[in-house]
Amino acid sequence: MSIDYENRYAIGQNEAKNFDTKQLRENFLSEDLFQQDKIKLVYTHYERYIVGGVVPINAALELSAIDPLKAKNFLDRRELGIINIGEQGIVSVDGEEFVLNNKEALYVGAGNKTVIFSSANKNSPARFYLNSAPAHKSYPNKKVTREDANVLELGSLETSNERSIYQLIINGVVETCQLQMGMTCLKPGSVWNTMPAHQHDRRMEAYLYFDLAEDQAVSHFMGEPKETRVMWVGNEQAMISPAWSIHSGAGTSNYSFIWGMAGENLDYDDMDKYMPNELR
């Protein structure tokens, strides 16, 4: 079978305070999204958000509905965001082909019937990262390159957080119901992301860390601002961040990460920020 999924129920902040490292990792971290010739999905009960990975090598892989969706097709009541973190790949949506190079994105609207993934060269496969959220309306499919993105240059080398933020699937670039996705790339010498740390009570978020050497890691910080926890995260691993949690990280080298979110509104700046000296 070419599609596997996990079903993860929501955890509240009071429960999470009592979790040990193993329990935190089991509930909030996905370590194995990218598997050869498979589609791997994690269905969460935070905004019914799905994160996933697709690595087509020897055959094309079709995104089919999983049991929790109770639907004939995956996108009957959902929208989908795709970002390729590997080599060139092709996504076919109801017969229309979109070629995605490294760090290019595709938005796929609700109501499409078939989504098929393939690699242009099986010796240098694509690695598609997926985010999906419920949708009440169908918007047009749209490919987004880094040149199409809204780009923010933030931070500085002095504070170790000089970074470029590519807003790829976001209000003003692509019309969506609630899904938003983008990519942050840290400059050499910078390691901190998302400073100041923040919460957004009306949205959940997911982070995929990548472009990280296999012998390096990122310390991902989560939890309430006065009750933070840390998890060590490796390359191509994804963190699920509930609305009650901050999300920030510091790596042992520079890296990139993809952020995706869904919830009540599309205002990117709708967040409650906490300065480093306010965190505990």
Automatic annotation (TrEMBL):
CDD domains: cupin_KduI_C (cd20491), cupin_KduI_N (cd20294)
Entry-linked SUPFAM superfamilies: RmlC-like cupins (SSF51182)
Cofactor(s) annotated in UniProt: Zn(2+)
Gene3D superfamilies in the cross-refs: Jelly Rolls, pectin degrading enzyme 5-keto 4- deoxyuronate isomerase, domain 1
Record's cofactor remark: Binds 1 zinc ion per subunit.
Gene Ontology biological process terms from the UniProt entry: D-galacturonate catabolic process; D-glucuronate catabolic process; pectin catabolic process
Alphabetic keyword roster: Isomerase, Metal-binding, Zinc
Zinc in keyword set: yes
Binding site for Zn(2+): H198, H200, E205, H247
GO molecular function: 4-deoxy-L-threo-5-hexosulose-uronate ketol-isomerase activity; zinc ion binding
EC number assigned by the record: 5.3.1.17
A Pfam family recorded for this sequence: KduI
Entry-linked InterPro entries: KduI, KduI/IolB_isomerase, KduI_N, RmlC-like_jellyroll, RmlC_Cupin_sf
Known role: Catalyzes the isomerization of 5-dehydro-4-deoxy-D-glucuronate to 3-deoxy-D-glycero-2,5-hexodiulosonate.
Family according to the record: Belongs to the KduI family.
Name assigned to this protein: 4-deoxy-L-threo-5-hexosulose-uronate ketol-isomerase
Gene name of the record: kduI
